[in-house]
Amino acid sequence: MTASLVVFGANSTIATEVARRYAPKNGTIILVGRDPDALARLQADISARSVGAVHGIVTDLADSSAHAQLLEQVKSFLPSDAPVHALIAYGTLTDEAKARSESDYFEAQMRTNFLSTVHLSQQLANWLDAREDASSLGVITSVAGDRGRQSNYVYGAAKGGVIRFLEGLAHRYAQRKLAIIDIRPGFVDTKMTASFKKGPLWASPEKVATDIAAALQAQKSTVIYTPWFWRFIMLIIRHVPTFIFHRTKL
Amino acid sequence: MENPAGTQTLKHASWGRAHATPQTLLPTDQRQLSELTEMPPPLLGYGLGRSYGDSCLNSAGLLLSSKPLNFIRSFDRETGMLRAEAGVTLATILELCHTPNSDGTHWFLPVTPGTKYVTLGGAVANDVHGKNHQRRGSFGCHVKSITLHRGNGEVLFCSAEQNAELFFATIGGMGLTGFIGEVELQLMRVPGLGLEVETQRFNHVDQFLALADESADWEYSVAWIDCLAPEKELGRGLFGRARHVGAPIKEYRLNPKIAVPFAPPICPLNGLTLRAFNALYLNQIRTSGWVKSSPDYTSYFYPLDAIAGWNKMYGPKGFFQYQCVLPGSGAMDGIRQLLLNIRASGQGSFLAVLKSLGPISSGGMLSFPCEGLTLALDFPNKGQKTLDLLASLDEITLAKGGRIYPAKDGRTPPATYRAMMPQLEQFTRYIDPRFTSDFWQRMQSDTEK
Prior knowledge:
- The complex is a heterodimer of chains A (250) and B (449).
- Chain A is of the alpha/beta class.
- Chain A contains nine helices and seven strands.
- In chain A, α1 packs across α7.
- Chain A is globular.
- Chain A starts with a strand and ends in a 5-residue tail after the last helix.
- The two termini of chain B are 27 Å apart.
- Classes of the chains: A alpha/beta (250), B alpha+beta (449).
C-alpha cells in the first residue's frame, strides 16, 4: 500500500519539495502549517499533482497544548492500513543577539525549535508505534546541533536537544516497526536563509528534499546529513580540540 | 531607488553565454509582486534563462526571477485545463501528465520546445514552438489567459476576450509588456506517453519537402541536417516523424544524467570535431527507407536535457544560435543559400534543425513562426568572423521575406529586425514604461543620438 505523508510545517521550502515528491505516488498527503493563505496555495499545488487525498490543517505547531487535538485530526484523515511517513519540518532561524538580550524571544525560540518539536515527536512516536504498519518519523534538525558554537548556540542548542531526543527514541524503538530519522541539513537556499549570501557549500531545497524522501521511504532508523559531505565536515568540527576551537569565530 | 534586499548577481544569465554582463536577480514571490511599484526600474521578468541571446537580460536594471512562483493553482483532469504561476516549468507539467486518465489516455504538452527546462512565463513570452507546429501552432495557441502585472501596480487578466490587445502583445512579447504572473494552459489529450518514431536518411536537403509531405498525418516531424556536408550532399540528414501511442511508459530519467561542471578554457568544438560528430550522428541510419524505433519521450523531445550545462562546452566565449523562418515557395531555395553560405564560411554547428512551420498563428504580435521552413543552428563565438557570417545570413533571410527568432538572437541590428517585423511598431504601444530588456535597448540603439 502506498505510504501516507504527514508534513508538520508544510509551508517550509524543504517541506514543500518533499510533499511534491510524494504527490505523484497518489497516496494520502496531510499538510500542517500556520499560515492559512500559504497552506491553501500549497494544498492547491499538491492536489493538482496528486489524484490521492490531500488535506490541510492550520495550527501553530509551537503550541504543545494543541498537539493532542492536531493528532486526532490527522488520524481522521488517514487510511488505516497504509504505512505513515511523518516529517517534522517547522522551525525558525534564531536572531542570536536578540535571543541573548530578550527573555521572551529567547523562550519562544526554545519553545518552537526544541520543546514543541520533541513533544510532538513523542506524541507521534506513541501513536505510530501502536499501528500495524511500519512507519517513518523524520525530524529536520541541523548540522548546527552537532556542536555548540559561539555564532549560533541558541539555535544550535535547540537542534542539539532534538538530536539527543531522537537518539533516545531510535534506541527505544530499535526492535520495532517505527524508524526514527534524524535529518541534518547544512546550508540550504530557502525562505529561512533568503537574506544570506550563498556560496559553493549551499544546497538547493530540491536536493535536500530528494534525500529526505529517500530516507523516509527506506523506513530505517538513521542519521542523514544532507548533502552527504556535511557528515565529514561536522566530524572534523566535533573533534577540533576546545583550546583551538575557542580561538575561532565559528 | 535602492535595490530591494535579497538580490543576487549572475553572470552568463542567457544560454549562449556570449553575453557576459553580470545581471542583478531578485527572487520574486507574491510579496515582491505586491511591491512592484517600489522596485527601481527598469524591470524584466526572468525564468530559467534558456533564451540564447539578450532577450532575457536587463543589464540596466533588475531581473525579477520567477523561481519562487512555482505553485500550480489548479489542474482539471477532466478537461486538461491547467492554471499555474509563471515560474512552474514544463518539466513539472510533464510530471503531472504521468498519471493516466480514467480512459487510459494521458494529458501532454500541446507544444513543446527542445528543452523542458523553461518556465510557463518564458514559454509564453517567446511563444515557443516545437516539432508539431503544422498541426498545433505555437505555445500561445493553447494559452487561455495570462495574469499580467504592470509596472504601475495594475494586475490585468488578459485573454482573447479581455484586454485582448495586451494578451496578444504579451504572447511572444519577451516580457516587455510586464511581469507574467499566472498562465492558463490547455493541455492536449494523447493515447499514451509512448512514442512511435520513424527515421529516414536523406542525402540532399532537396529531398526534405517530399519527406515532409509523406509525413503530413504524423504529429511530429523534424530533420537534423549536417551543415558541414560536401556540396553535392548539401544538407544531408535524418528526417524523423513521430506520434504518441498507448504503450506503457518506459523507464526514463527525469534529471540530467551527466553535468558539465565548467566551461573548458578553449572551445573544443572546431571544424574537425563537428564534422566527425555530424558524420557519426547521421551514420546511425545506414539503410534506406523508414527505420522504426520507440524511444521514451524524454530522449525524443529533450535529448540535450540529459547533459546539464551542455552550453558550457562552447568554452568561455560561448556561442550564437541562429534561427530564421523563410516563407512561401522560395523557402527551399533560401535554405540552400543559407547552407551554401555557412559551408563557405567554414564555421559550423552540431547538426542543424530544419522544420516545416504551418499557417496556424497564435496571434502574438511579435510571434516568430509563420508558414514556411525554419532552420536553426549554433555557431561557436569566434568574434567578428561569426558576427559577419550571421549578418550575411540575415541578408538572405531578409531577401526571402523571412525573419529571425529573438529568443535565439543576440546581435541582429535594429534596422534589420524592424525590416523583418513591421509589427514592431504596433507592439511598441504595449511595452510597459517601467520594463525593458537588453534586446529592447539594442532595438532602440540606432535611434539614440
